[in-house]
Amino acid sequence: MYKASLGEFEFDIDSSGNSTVNGIKKQVKFIVHSDGSFLLSVDGKTKEADLVRNDKENKQIILRIEGKKYTIQLKEPVDVLLDQLGMKTGGHKKINNLKAPMPGLIVKILAKEGEHYKAGEPLLILEAMKMENVFKAAADVIIKDIQITEKSTVEKGQVLMVFK
Question: What CA–CA distance (Å, rounded) separates 66 from 120?
């Protein structure tokens, strides 16, 4: 399940097309054309649209729908889960470590001890619920200690990395 927000509209989107807009069930479809534009269909009503910008780092997309631009903030399933677990990171809060938000398997460690990573840079990949989740630095950090190894299993709340 993905979540997106556009102004006062909140979207819950799943891969089957059964979605909600502000809690009301809607049938949402994207029909992609070969030129990169697409039709957006909500409950059978279609509108011409095209992708203006895809900002993967900030999880935002800008769409032009019938000539008007819209900025959409996206939340992937892992972001939704982190919100549900109350594990949002604050804007200027010092982050001392990275903890596992759920049980899983460490697929790959991308960071190295002693190295500096900027906010948004990937640190590790955790497989949970049959999905690979890339965990990125929430702020600029230096890795002090990596407390896990690749192919190890972790429990919810387990410290994975300690930051300086």
Answer: 32
Q: How does pLDDT run across 14-48, given as a tens digit for each residue?
A: 766 678 888 888 887 778 887 777 887 878 888 88
Q: How far apart are the first and last CA of the chain?
A: 35
Looking from the CA of 159 toward its CB, the CA atoms found within 13 Å total 11
Q: Which domains does the chain have, with CATH numbers?
A: 2-75 (no CATH), 89-163 (2.40.50.100)
Q: HSE-up of 29 (CA within 13 Å, CB side)? A: 10
CA dist., res. 87 & res. 83, Å (int): 6
Long-range contacts of 128-134 (CB under 8 A, 24+ apart): 128/102, 128/103, 128/104, 129/102, 129/104, 131/77, 131/78, 132/107, 133/78, 133/104
pLDDT per position as a tens digit, 47-57: 888 888 888 77
Q: Give the Cα separation of 68 and 3 in Å (integer).
A: 22
